[in-house]
Each structure stands twice: as C-alpha cells, then as structure tokens.
Amino acid sequence: MFQQDPADHVLEVGLKDLWYPVCPSSFVKDAPISLRRLGYKIVLWRDPGTGRVNALEDHCPHRGAPLSLGMVLGDRLACPYHGVEVRQDGVVTRVPGSPGCKLEGSKAARRFHVQEGAGAVFVYNATDPHLEAAPPLRLPEQLTSPEWSSFLCYTEWGCDYRYVVDNVIDPMHGAFLHKQSHSMAEGDISAEFQLRDTPTGFVFEKKGQRDVNFDWTEWMDTGIHVMRLEIPYPKTGGPGGNFSIIGSYTPITNRTSGVFHWRCRRVTGWQRDTWRFLYRNRLEQRHWDVLEQDRVAIENMEPDANRREHLYQHDMGIVRLRRHLKNLAKQQVEKAGAPA
C-alpha cells in the first residue's frame, strides 16, 4: 500500500502559518457559505452590523452539523441542529438545550483569521486552531498602492494547485502555448535562463530578453506566497506600460485549485479610467482565452505527471521552487513532531 510522504501531505493541503486567498469578496453576502479549502470545510459569513467577514471550520463542536446551514447572529452562528451558538473566535457562547453545560465558554471550534483586500477574502492557515492574533497580510504594491489599478480574475481548475504554480514559474511555455496571443507572439522560442535572489524570494528569467514576451517570473514569500510576472503591451492596450499579473493559488482538494490572478497596471487619474474601460471592453476576454489555454493543458495532464518528468535547463525555476516548498513542508513536519 502506498504511504504518502508526510511533507507531501503538508504541501497537498497547503503549508501552515500562511495567508491564502479563498474566494472573491462577492461570494460572501448575507447568508453563510461553505467552502472546501486547505484541507478543511470552512464557513464564511458577514456580520450584518459591521460588514466584516468571519470564518470558522464548518463543523459544530456539539455533533458536527454544518454551521453554514445555521443562522447569522452578528459575530456568531447558531447551529441549525440544536441551536448551539459559536462565536467567530471559536468560543461556544450558548447551548440552549443545556444552559451552563461545560461546552459553554469552551474554545471548541477552529477559527480562521480573515482579511479582505484587492477584491478577495484571505484566511490565515494557522497551525494553532485558536491563534489569538495573525500576522498582518502583506500584499504586493500592485494590489495596495493607489498608483496601481487591478482586476481580480478568479477561477477553479481541476488539478493539484502545485501544477498551477509550476505553470507560472515556467516562462518558456508562453512562446509555445500562447504564441497566438495578442501579447505573447514575439520573442525567441529558445532561451537560456538564470535565477536571481531577491529579499523575499527569487526571479527566474530569460537571459538577454526583457519586455518582449513572458520573460520572467518572481516568486515571493511575504507571509503569503504570491507570484508576479509582466506581459509587454502595445500602445493599443491603453496607458500604464507593461501589464503586471499577481497570482496566488489555493488548494481546494488534491484535484481542484482556486486560481487567483490580479491583472494590474500602474495608472492614476484619467489614465485609470481609460485603462479600466479598455480592459472591460476589449482586453478581458483575450486574457481569459490565454488562461483557458493553460487550464486545458494542465487539466489534461495525468495526476502523476510530475513523477515521470525529464527536466532540462528551462526547468531550473520549477526545481528551485519545488525544493524550497518541500523544505518548508519538512520543517513543519519536524516542528509538529518535536517534543513540547
């Protein structure tokens, strides 16, 4: 019987003590919603008084009924099965059927710290189910600076999220898979690559080719794992220079990924309005077409494709990133197994 490497299992469901995007903000409205993410079923809801998004494991600590089917009571949910009320910090505040029982006042549910930004809901995947405070969410300037404007493009792909990461750290596929694209038709189909370290990660880039095609990818760890790349744009694409893409990818199951891409340009004032109009009316569908090419290629790879590879020089970025993530997973396994 196949026994999974503990570090591989950690990677499959998502490294701990990191922020992850879990859905667009528009998904969370008046009623609770239930999402499978990061090896959990998570319920998210908005406090009607503050508008704040809260998240718990979608599992009532009494009998395991889904809290997502219950009633919103501000910062609490009332389980539909027996009315047990659970606060956003995981504390059971009321047991109507047995007032004063030992369940009341206990931290019996897994909580998730939540932040909203750039049109998405982010949760902190803490090792500690009752972590009092999470570190701040640090997103790239493209998603936080008033000098930038962005659109979130969210979709779900039928593959392990690590295949999406491999796809983005591989600039060379752009010259082949996307060669008919309006923005990736130029540049050589052969190239030599190099790795360059940065304060938060590394850049994998083509030597001697810049601002021609999909020429480089940056991987960053700022308490959230994100990837950044640029696609050169002609003047017909509107103001703002190169088109930046910020990506972050979240495991749903080992066969489904949450794929978040923010399309960004450095624009302010009237240029911002022009760019946003052009994007919605002329460019957005083209970008979805490019993503669809990626999706079809990756979803049709066998689940064990990465176990039967023959890698070469173009794949240095993939090798570097896989090794780094595997080392992070091993450290978490060792920490979890260490004596208290």
UniProtKB/TrEMBL annotation:
Residues 19-123 form the Rieske domain. The keyword Iron applies. Gene3D superfamilies: Naphthalene 1,2-dioxygenase Alpha Subunit, Chain A, domain 1 (3.90.380.10), Rieske [2Fe-2S] iron-sulphur domain (2.102.10.10). Keywords: 2Fe-2S, Iron, Iron-sulfur, Metal-binding, Oxidoreductase. One of its GO terms (molecular function) is oxidoreductase activity. SUPFAM superfamilies: Bet v1-like (SSF55961), ISP domain (SSF50022). It comes from the Bacteria. This is Rieske 2Fe-2S domain-containing protein. It comes from Ramlibacter pinisoli.
